[in-house]
Amino acid sequence: MSELRRHWTPTAAVFLALAVAGLAGTSVFNAFAIVQMRDFIGDLVSSGPAVSSITVDLLVVAIAGSIFILVEARRLGMRFAWVYIVLSGITAFAFTFPLFLAMRQRRLTARAHADADADADARDSR
Question: I need a labelling partner for 113 at 20 to 30 A (CA). Which of 39, 46, 60, 84 fits?
Fold first, then answer.
């Protein structure tokens, strides 16, 4: 259990809170769309120029964020990065991207601690 609590920095906690807010906020509106039997895609592209602008804006951010997830996860050796992208289609990118950032922050913290431990061991062996 203590392993689950390791490497949670304030930054990682903020990203996790944003992920929960993104999941809760988008789930409510997705549920409304389902209950009202709305044409979700049709509403995104045909509800006027402002909605279309926001849709394109968020789509470009989601694509750029997905590329970042794949590249950064590979760089840090994080497995299963594709799960965040698949989950974004099922839940929301407002959930999966901050969740990835929280896990990324934990990985960076773990690596920093491992590097510090290795440096201490190297100094002790001299």
Answer: 84
Residue given tokens 């590097």 in the structure block: 115
**Exposure string for 15-30, b = 16+ CB within 10 A, e = fewer:** bbebbeebbeeeeeee
Q: What is the pLDDT of residues 14-25, one digit of tens each?
A: 999 999 999 998
Contacts 24+ apart (CB under 8 A), 58-66: 58/93, 61/93, 62/88, 62/93, 62/97, 65/93, 65/97, 66/93
pTM value > 0.70: yes
